[in-house]
Amino acid sequence: MQSFERAEAFLRDVVGTSSENELADALGCVARDLGFDHFALTHHVDIRRAPRTAIRLHNYPAEWVEYYDAHSLGVSDPVHRASHVTSVGFAWSEIPRMIAMTPGDFEILSRGEGKGIGDGFTVPANVPGESNGSCSFANPKGVPIREDDLPLAQLVGAFAFEAARRLWRVRAPAAQAMPKLTDRQRECILWVARGKSDWEISRILGVQHETVVQHLKQARERYGVGKRTMLAVQALFDGSISFNDVLKR
Amino acid sequence: MVLVCQCIARPLHLPALREMFEDRKRVFVDLLKWDVPVLEGRYELDQFDGERAVYLIAADAERGHAASARLLPTSEPHILDTLFPELCAAPPPRGGNVYEITRFCLADRQGAAARLEARNRLVSALVRHALDNGIRTYVGVAEMRWLQQILAFGWRCRPLGLPRPIGGRLLGALAIEIDEETPALLEASGIYSAEPLHPLEILEAA
Q1: Taking CB atoms and an 8 Å limit, are B148 and A158 in contact across chains?
Q2: How far apart are CA B125 and CA B102, in angstroms?
Q3: pTM here?
Q4: Interface predicted TM-score of the whole assembly (ipTM), two decimals
């Protein structure tokens, strides 16, 4: 079992680093010490659509990465989806208990297995207002995961993701600016997310139908989207409304 | 406005604090299911609430208590050394310029956007309070599910030991170093708010 000093040594290596390669080397090195062949630190996006603003560092087998990107698995990967329903690290063997698995999901996992990515441990990295992300550690099938070292992997994953965020922020400062909604616009979006029509929302809030139409029109303009569904998704994504807000009551 | 309340012998007598204790009960007991004492079925107060605690309270005119934190001097018994010493690999920082952040509370009756704003105001106030009062280090016990957010504030934060599962939650001890650069680090993360701090006594006299 690795001691806490290993985490401290990793932090000394990465804090303030301005080099992706340095971060990747340090992460590969600590992953090995924790008993893992591979690591992948990534935002959960389609990497081909956002190559400059999305974070991705890994030492996964090239063949698996090619297949992964060709099928845009960044957004549908069951490992990524599972990491959206928890905020602490989980072993991949837990995934079927965390999300509803489809036959396609099982196929992805078994294909990964065929390419040397068999079992792993993933630390979710979710920051409000930004794409969800994670830091995973993986092994070929049959190489056991060392349970004792998972608390250390948890720390390493979180600090590594933050180090990567700081590197990338320099690259994409524009991503910081969030559209500001008025309280009334936000309230209307909340009801859109709950499936209400403009007319229904006007009854609920006790305002004119046309007022709701205008609030939502202006809100769509702020996000630069055309459809009400996209509006609700954007507002959820940047934290203007939360799943809890939508689901409560 | 962010209130700073200290040396308060009977905290439940002050409306601003009473409201905070009520929200703490809703957040920590009702929502997060912490096993902590509740007074009169309404207020969450424990043995550390009293004259030695410092409270920072972000409030707003219409809605009252929005966010708050309790600071405990580490020269006296506090949460990390009394309840969770096993979370530290080595003796943690302590002394006159080290305070422990506890009961970081965001009132749950506000929506997500208001909660984030209140969170940013409170974190900024913690930094300014430290700079105004010669506090160099904050320590604290955090649920690891919040770690990524705590790091994303941009301040200098380091772990004090390995996280451990305790009572069904993964807990870890952290230290945050505060210096003159910290406000700029928060600013770069887009969360800094330069709102002034008001000592509670001044407001009551006014």
Answers
A1: yes
A2: 14
A3: 0.85
A4: 0.91
